[in-house]
Specification:
Elements: E1 5-9, H1 13-24, E2 28-32, H2 41-44, E3 48-49, H3 51-54, H4 61-84, E4 90-91, E5 95-99, H5 102-116, E6 123-126, H6 127-131, E7 143-147, E8 151-153, H7 155-168, E9 172-174, E10 180-184, E11 189-193, E12 198-201, E13 203-206, H8 216-219, E14 225-236, E15 245-248, E16 251-256, E17 260-268, H9 278-291, E18 302-311, E19 317-320, E20 327-331, H10 337-352
Parallel strand pairs: 1-2, 1-13, 2-9, 5-15, 13-20
Antiparallel strand pairs: 3-8, 4-8, 5-7, 6-7, 10-11, 11-12, 14-17, 14-18, 15-16, 16-17, 19-20
């Protein structure tokens, strides 16, 4: 029996996850990356697996996908560890979403009501119950929504392990291809690299993140995916002073096992520019010291930026395009690429194999803007 050949354009977290899933299902997968795997948004991510904290409006279809992915993570990350033979941090820390004012507290109580219907065992913490969990938190904090189910992962090591897992099961990975041109996508899938090499397959999976919009003319469709620059900084700390992922309406702080405290994210529109700016990092420093006063005397030892692929309506584009039975998109995950990697991998693989998917996945149809 001939194995179906799948080409994946994009070696970020989504591309690698999809490649691993498809290869595991018996396909022969080739990943094509213009730079290096995980070199863009994937490696720059803070690695939070926090669908309850990141989705504050209500249980829409996007929240459902994020929650599904959170549930997949325990088994998924264990599989990646075993196959890659590499370790990486995966911490079930839980999260705190801070409220400073009574009006904010009412909003947290409303969120807790609907989140409990979707599996959260969360609670509202106040006073000693809150400060016993985070002793260094500002006393201006009135309360917090505590969500035990949320966790985080160390993105650089996770992406590295995922790439190695792909290689170990036979995925062919080509990096530093500079530019890729889709030569044919109707009768078969043919891609040409800048050095003249041709790659061909039975189906083509587009996982090129913030660069996907450049393929709109090729596929005769609207692909509204735009790069949003997210700037992050990190502090060196001793005896990790922050135990949970801590959110507020300005951003987040998350303590890592390597004795760093990551603060993010300052966002702006800068095209494909990943330059770190004094203004962007300054925004983080201005609010984080109000949340944790001990940071007022500290200076970040590292700062970086990544491009987050945002869509017009905030939902990713996942599915087969109307113009071809050979092209599937999995792009536009914005700042949830790490969280959504296992769910997107399974969903994209289901589309490749023409399997039935859940009804809510129609909200992510790539053709909804055309």
């Amino acid at each position: 029996m001939t194995r179906e050949k799948i080409m994946v354009m994009g070696g970020g977290i989504i591309g690698l996850s999809c490649a691993f899933e498809l290869q595991s299902r018996g396909c022969q997968v080739t990943v094509l990356e213009t730079k290096r795997c995980g070199g863009q948004a994937s490696g720059a991510a803070a690695g939070m697996l926090a669908p309850y904290s990141e989705n504050v409006e209500g249980p829409d279809d996007f929240f459902q996908l994020c929650l599904e992915s959170l549930h997949l993570y325990p088994e998924w990350q264990q599989t990646i560890r075993q196959v890659s033979k590499q370790d990486f941090e995966y911490t079930s820390s839980g999260s705190l979403y801070i409220a400073y004012h009574e009006a904010d507290l009412l909003a947290l109580e409303g969120r807790l009501l609907w989140q409990r219907q979707y599996g959260s065992s969360g609670s509202i913490l106040e006073g000693d119950a809150l400060f016993s969990r985070e002793p260094l938190l500002t006393r201006d904090a009135q309360a917090a929504l505590y969500t035990p189910e949320e966790s985080h992962i160390y993105a650089p090591h996770y992406v590295s392990a995922l790439e190695q897992a792909c290689r170990n099961i036979g995925v062919q990975i080509y990096e530093h291809l500079d530019e890729l041109e889709i030569v044919e996508w109707q009768r078969e899938a043919v891609v040409r690299a800048a050095d003249g090499r041709f790659f061909n397959g039975d189906q083509l999976l587009i996982c090129s993140g913030a660069w996907a919009q450049q393929l709109a003319e090729t596929f005769h469709m609207n692909i509204p995916v735009y790069p949003i620059r997210g700037q992050i900084c990190a502090y060196e700390v001793e005896a990790q002073p922050v135990s949970h992922m801590v959110f507020c309406n300005q951003g987040y702080l998350v303590g890592k096992a390597n004795s760093t405290l990551v603060c993010g994210a300052s966002e702006d529109v800068a095209g494909y520019d990943t330059t770190v700016t004094e203004k962007g990092i300054g925004r983080l420093k201005n609010w984080n010291k109000q949340l944790f006063p001990f940071l007022a005397d500290k200076t970040p030892f590292h700062s970086w930026a990544g491009l987050r692929p945002a869509t017009q309506d905030g939902f990713p584009l996942i599915g087969r395009i109307a113009e071809s039975s050979r092209v599937v998109l999995a792009v536009g995950h914005y700042r949830n690429g790490i969280l959504l990697s296992p769910a997107t991998a399974k969903l994209a693989a289901d589309y490749i194999e023409d399997k039935q998917t859940s009804a809510y996945n129609q909200s992510f149809s790539p053709d909804r803007f055309s």
